[in-house]
Amino acid sequence: MSKGETNFQFLDRFDKRVARLAKQAEKYVHTDPDSCMFKLRLMVETMAKTLTSLQMRGDISKDLGAMLGALERSGTLPRRQADTMHAIRRDGNAAVHGSPTPVPTAMRRLREAYKVSGWFCKMLKRGSKINLDAFDPPKPPTPVDQQTKNLHGKIDELEESIEQRRVATRESLLMFGPQEDVEEVTRRITEELKALDNVAAAAGEPVIDADFVALVMAMDLEQIEEDPRHGGDSRQARREAEEQLDGIKKHLADREAVFLEERTFLMEQRVHHQKENQ
After folding, report:
1. In angstroms, rounded to a whole number, what is the distance separating the alpha carbons of residues 39 and 35?
2. How many domains does the chain have?
3. Is residue 198 very low, low, confident or very high in pLDDT (cuts 50, 70, 90)?
4. 89 within domain boundaries
5. Residue 25 lies in a domain
6. Chain segment 252-272, per-residue pLDDT in tens
7. CATH number of the domain to which 138 belongs
8. Residue 100 included in any domain
9. Among 116, 111, 118, 112, which Cα is nearest to 132's?
């Protein structure tokens, strides 16, 4: 990418505030990765505020984590985009609290912000055709030495390991893959269970509630909704599912805290080595 060019030019047509923050983050990714993360977090927060004002009713907390959670529960924010925005929120918060941001982390989040911004534009203007080009990583202003490249490689490995854990946790909560159509899966499961109902009835056995079983099987645990047809059982199922999910999220948060310590240690080693060679 040559000087003055930007991956985020298309955003100007949809939201100039988001576009400005994205371009600032892109500008800082090599020279000041902490500032890059500050700007990306503000970008995500601006997106979340816009979406909650457009898509939701009632008072919604202005806390970013709470806003993203509310958007997820309402079905406005899909899993993939939610994961991206939460990752940017977490790394932005870490930077605010003094944890140094490595360039590979800032670049990874910038690339993810580019993808989620295309989705955001489609949400703002339904029917808009947004065809994003391949992300063009900004070039460093000065050549990177081999030692720095090695450090970046180690940090990339850490980033990828935590990303795989996030994906594995998400997938463990699903009865189907992220590319499958929820409505189609629900329809298919319902038909299969109703067929079993017919077999059971012919044999004189008690029948099952196919609609309820399909509902539970075809939805994320965190999105099981109360249904008046199912009374107290549905509410209890939701409470139990939320407790399980809270436990899983706490475990993942603990793992991410360890990951952040490892990343910080690598950065501190680099600084210490640079001082020794001065």
Report:
1. 6
2. 1
3. low
4. yes
5. yes
6. 667 777 777 877 877 777 666
7. 1.20.120.330
8. yes
9. 118
